[in-house]
């Protein structure tokens, strides 16, 4: 990529993420800050490790959550024991800058969800949260997944799938500049957080365990014929994904840190793709706030729309943001049972 173009793209992406962080920090200082126990963390990162066809220079997920209703923090501190709920919209872009001259930003992903979460406190002051999200996932492209010459779902494009069998190396055929990826999806998740509180009722340590199931489906919100998948493509990327995550959060002096492990499995993908992805991460929050410094090692299938056909290892370092920063919680022995 031309040096000056690369610098301009770097500055644009970093400036965009910087604006996002300034907005997030402003919300963090607000008394109206919202909390999401089950969430996708945003990040801006560079790293090492690529597929055989492309080199990633910079990667970003500027995820945002917009609350329609959110009383999660308030519910955990009420005088009576009640559940806390959040109803929200979430926009989850995923962008990459590649080391290429003609089109360095290719097939950026966009997820848009409407979601609901509910949290309850157990008799041991642990948290149990359930969530359901439904929405759309696509990369905004219009061409065939395996040809730049044909429109997606055209007769010419459909004929390409006739030559695909279980032994076809689809990663080698993938249209990486304009191939369409589109589906609607629903995700359900359950999180259990085991807390240890200090004398001020602030969580000093926690063990967080999350399991989730994600389903690709054709109708938007399960009802509307909009934004669904190409019937040939869904046979390749499958409909099901299972997720499991463990994260430990602790404190060292005035800093907070997290160590986490995520496993993703999509069992019904095309045989040329890996069915698993692993992410091991470490995050340091130097000021015990929302902003953190992230290091991550991943291997298995790629999580960038149709590039799930690729499989490789990658080490990333960058910045991230926490949507469930620890806060003082009223212990359950000081709350009354709801009447």
What does this structure look like?
- It is a single chain.
- The protein has five helices and 17 strands.
- The chain is mostly beta strands and 339 residues long.
- The protein has a single domain (3-337), classed as Beta Barrel (Outer membrane phospholipase (ompla), Chain C), CATH 2.40.230.10.
- The protein has a twelve-stranded antiparallel beta barrel with strand order 1-2-5-6-7-10-11-12-13-14-15-16. The protein has a two-stranded parallel ribbon with strand order 4-17. A two-stranded antiparallel sheet has the order 8-9.
- A hairpin with a 2-residue loop joins β8 and β9.
- Keywords: Membrane, Transmembrane, Transmembrane helix.
- The chain crosses the membrane at residues 7-24.
Put the structure in a nutshell:
Keywords: Membrane, Transmembrane, Transmembrane helix. By secondary structure, this protein is mainly beta.
Descriptive keywords:
339 residues; mainly beta; Outer membrane phospholipase (ompla), Chain C; two-stranded parallel sheet; 17 strands; membrane; transmembrane; transmembrane helix
Strand tally: 17
* Number of structural units classed as domains: 1
Find the CATH superfamily.
Phospholipase A1
**Residues in β-strands, percent:** over 45%
Structural class: mainly beta
Q: What's the CATH class label? A: Mainly Beta
Terminal CA distance reads 66 Å
Biggest pleated sheet: 12 strands, antiparallel, barrel
> Over all CA atoms, what is the radius of gyration?
21 Å
How would you state the average pLDDT, rounded?
89
Which word captures the global form? Answer: globular
